[in-house]
Amino acid sequence: MRNPFALPPMPPWMEKPTVLGRATKGIALTIICVLVLYPFVLAVGTSLASADELRAAGGWVLIPSEPTLEAYQVLLSGGVVTKAAVVTVGVTVIGTALSMLATIMIAYGTSRPGSLGSRWIVLMMLGTFLFAPGIIPSFLMVKQLGMLDTYAALVLPVLLNAFNVIVVRQFFMNVPNELLDAARMDGATDMTILRKVILPLSKAVLAVVGLFYAVSYWNAFFNAMLYVQSDKYPLQMILRSYIIEAGEMNAGDLGIAHLPPGQAIKMAVLVCAVAPIVCVYPFLQKYFVKGVLTGAIKG
Amino acid sequence: MTTVESAVRPPQGQRRTEGEASGKRAGRWRRDKTLFFLALPGALYFVLFFYIPLLGNVVAFQDYAPFLGFTGSSFVGFENFTAMLADDAFWKAVGNTLEITLLQLFLYFPAPLALALLLHGMLGNRLKRLVQTVVYLPHFMSWVIVVAMFQQVFGGAGSLNMFLRQNDISILNIMNNPDTFSLLMTSQVIWKDCGWGTIMFLAALVAVDQNLYEAAAVDGGGKWRRLWHVTLPGIRPVLIMLFILRLGDILSVGFEQILLQRKFVGANASEVIDTYVFYNGVIDGNWGISTAAGLMKGIIGAALMLAANKLAHRLGEQGVYNR
Question: Domains plus CATH for chain B?
Answer without folding.
Answer: 12-72 (no CATH), 81-314 (1.10.3720.10)
